[in-house]
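Hey, weird one. I pasted the Probable hydrogen peroxide-inducible genes activator sequence into the form twice and got a warning about non-standard characters only the second time. First submission, copied straight from the form history:
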Amino acid sequence: MATSLPSFSQLRAFVALCDHQHFGEAATTLGVSQPSLSQAITALERRVGGELVERTTRRVLVTPLGETLLPYAREAVLAAESFSEAVTTQGAVLSGTMRLGMIPTLAPYLAPVAIDGLPREIPQLQPELREMVTGDLLDMLGQGRLDAAILAIDVDIDAHRTSVIPMYDEPLVILVPPNHSWDGRKDVSPVELDDQQLLLLDEGNCLRDETLALCQRYGSNPPVA
């Protein structure tokens, strides 16, 4: 006797719950009630014969079985959504939802442009913006959870799976307090930074990583506050 397949709603509920690790947030994202979401997860667990998530008072933990099946569920959901969007758009080249990610240093400036400009230039295209650090953007691109990302390109990118389109260049500058010995200088060599304490953005921020990588490239190892 053939085994019945899980429904799309069950798989979508499972993926959303794993992404948010919270029943309330996942239910809100899917536009369903928490009881409906819980029922879908329970039905899927019965179908696969084991617990997919571990429920706690504060968050949801994905079980080893859930971690094993999650990539297959995500792929199935992505394929179904792509099929549905293709049917809806009926061959339009650029239409539907565009999932666009941006790094935090660019989002305040480019997000308003994307939100206002894309629908105006391409009315059938609706931008959905995500703000996150470079590593998370690349992970989501690789998983098919983003359609495009705006980030600094001084990172390792799989050229076989990702197309890179340069948008613009901007200089890397140093801010110093008034009356600093460098005040008024036009440029500074990275090796001169060894005698200075740098104040950088938080770990994981691409600007921090690029600055430290530039210093290492020139043999500089400045102290970081």
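That's the output from the first submission. The warning seems to come from a hidden character in my clipboard, not from the data itself. The chain has three domains: 8-88, 92-150, 171-225.
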